[in-house]
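Example: Putative outer membrane starch-binding protein.
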Amino acid sequence: MAHTTIKHIGRAVLFGFALTSFVGCKTFLEEQAPSNLSPNNFYTIPDHAEAGIAATYSGLRFMGGDAGIFSTNWQLLEALTGTSTTETAQNSDLNNLYGLVHDGNTVHVVNYWNGLYRLIANANLVIARVPGIPQMDAAQRTKILGEARFLRASAYFTAVRLWGDIPLITQPQSAVSADFMPVRTSQEDVYKLIVEDLTAAEAAGLAWTDVSGRANLAAVKTQLSKVYLTMAGFPLSKGASYYKLAADKALEVITYANANPSSINLFSTYDDVHRESNKNRLEHLFMIQYNTSVAGNPMDNFYPNFKPVTYNGPGGTGSSVPTGSFYNSYESGDLRAKDQVGYFYTTYYTNGNGAQFSLGAPYVFKHFNRTANGTSGVAGTRQNNLNVPQIRFAETLLIYAEAQNEVGGPNQAAYDAMKRIRDRAALTTPALGSFTQATFRDAVLRERWHELCYEQLTWFDMVRLRKVYNDKTNGFDNFVGHINPSSNQALQEKHLLLPIPRQELLNNPNLKTQNPGYPGV
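Written out as structure tokens, the predicted fold is:
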């Protein structure tokens, strides 16, 4: 538990995060702080359960929180990968991440720890208190508990991959709780809870998809397949049996999608991936919800440094921009690297809808909202309500292809899953018979790097694989010793984990020692 941030977490839902019930997108996001509630009279009626789960969802938005000048929290998971660099160099904490010299004081590290444990605390309140609400519809109760367990599992999944052995808290906490100063729990036990939570969520009666943005069965199953895939690799190294679990779970989603292509599918164009009207639909299995009435999309640090690409005029910071070597690593003809077609733009329109001009370099436009920012001849709304993707069907396909290959080499279904990703990019895929298990593995991983880049996923691939894509050789290096193009610095063994925030170590002696290689208190 984050000792410095959730001493009074029992009051968080009541005074900081309580939301109205889920009735459409707007009420899903609106926050209130009702004055007539206290810890003693909350969670007494079904509406309190809805407010509690809404508060838990709202906690996902910590990733878009402020991390100092020209920076937001999500950049933690981009700066370390080496696929991005910065044009501004104004933020010392962000510079430390790019330079691989971060420590327990780095604000992004601290904010991720605090944000994840706040989310976990709110999920714990829902899981503990909702079963006791009288006269509540049983199906509604089960569904809300399933959503809470999906959110708790997802938070712990992020945390255990970032810090390794971490405090495992499953009950609401207060200053008098017996484990208010918790010890660190082994990664094995943390993963056990993650699997238990996701299995419970899977059985909670969730719909396969949910356009309101709530957790759904396709997202739960894909997340569980990703957990199994991670457990198969480092650091648990559970191997073939877990690759089989990952493949089977991802295949369940693919099988449903094949039978229901209007519900789950790949978008036909890359522009559709970041089209505001496509939020929570088709390829987007789960997203963090944004609406400017509460919080607007937080990804504008990808935009060029004060170049007039939005209807508001110059405004981006360029504090996360692609490294030239990564952009150049896309195959010739790959639509994902084609200007104003794929995930990178090299030109745009002055103030969003004016004359076209050169940006002078490729920039990440994967999270660029044309509706809000404008497009050729069309003014923007200035209301950036675009969601941030967390789980896309493209990832489901790639999980299946990778896991199935590890089970017994590439089969037709694994090949077809990878080929769907390449077909959309207008790339030719060599025949199935031309691949060995090793060459197919590398081909799938290259697609992960090129398809899922800049979605805060690449770092986790690097850690579980202990491999890093080398964008100059088109091969893969060992994690330790790989030179990050963004800093020209080598990754070290210690970088496989983040440092525990220094203030946590100071306030909670039961955490004992810092992660290896980082300065202690």
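The first helix runs from residue 12 to 17.
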